[in-house]
Amino acid sequence: MSTHVSLSQLDRYAAGDPALDEPSVWAIEVHLEECADCRARLAGSTTGDSRAVIERVAAGLAREIAASPAPDTRTRPWSVLRHRWLVGTLAPWLAMTAAVIACAALLSGLRTGLPSLVLLIAPLAPLPGVAVAWHRRADPAWEVVAATPAAGLITLLRRTAVVLAFVIPGLALVGAGTGVSLALILLPCLAFTVATLLLGTLVGVRRAAIGLILTWTIVVVAPSLATARMPVLLEPESATVWALATAVLTVGAILRVNGFRRLSHHD
Ligand SMILES: [Zn+2]
């Protein structure tokens, strides 16, 4: 059984086929990183046209490098941090998330008859941020990042960590203010984030996030607002179930991410 990247997939990867989903791109990149055979076949997959473009760009670059002064070699830690861990387009999403959490807290404070909105939306809070954390169209630096093998997966994990580092203290702060159980805010929030990553390795992160947001809204948020009753899922007794679910999902996600790496051992 061969686990090399198929020629048709290499062709699509070389052509930048937008229909090639994120999980396939990650698997191909992780494999290419360690397989000289497939790298050689990838080089063969480029068309005459693209080779001509590369030669033209290389000649142009060589001319410009010869004509320009020596580059500044000082490293800028902040710019490395900004490009590896953050993305400019993440900021408005994080601001929106903060605004939604704050509104939920305010509304819960005003209307005591309703189930806590903070509890209801906590699982979804990190998902919009995670969805844009690694998305080609949302990231102006995408082409630069994508030039590094396997950058997609690692960048996604790093940026998810950034989103959580922002969302968790926000939820904790609001939760402490409204007196709802911290475990019931944070455990579902973590479980949904990990579930997005896990599902994302199958169907793409954006689709996973949108699917989970819609499911939770339709199955849990809408009915509990309509009946003004807290769902069983968010009763204090459910905290253990959430803890268990988070642990199981985390193990699943780790195995899945390692799965992308194992694909490369094909001898
Ligand atoms: Zn190979």
Please give a structural write-up.
The protein has 2 domains: 61 residues, no CATH class; 186 residues, no CATH class. With 267 residues, it is mainly α. Helix content is 73%, strand content 0%. The chain starts with 6 loop residues before the first helix and ends in a 5-residue tail after the last helix. It is elongated. The longest helix is centred in the middle third of the chain and has 28 residues. Helix 1 crosses helix 3 and helix 6 runs parallel beside helix 10. The chain contains 13 helices and no strands. The site of zinc ion has 7 residues, from helix 3.
List the helices and strands and how they pair.
Layout: H1 7-14, H2 22-34, H3 36-45, H4 48-67, H5 77-85, H6 90-110, H7 117-121, H8 127-133, H9 142-146, H10 151-178, H11 182-203, H12 205-227, H13 239-262
Bound molecules: zinc ion.
Zinc ion binds next to α3.
Overall 3D shape: elongated
Radius of gyration: 23 Å
> What structural category characterises the helix and strand content?
mainly alpha
Strand content: under 5%
Largest sheet, if any? none
Ligand roster: zinc ion
> How confident overall, as mean pLDDT?
79
Low-confidence stretches: 263-267
Ends distance? 10 Å
Helix content: over 70%
Order of helices and strands: HHHHHHHHHHHHH
- For the record, the count of structural domains works out to 2
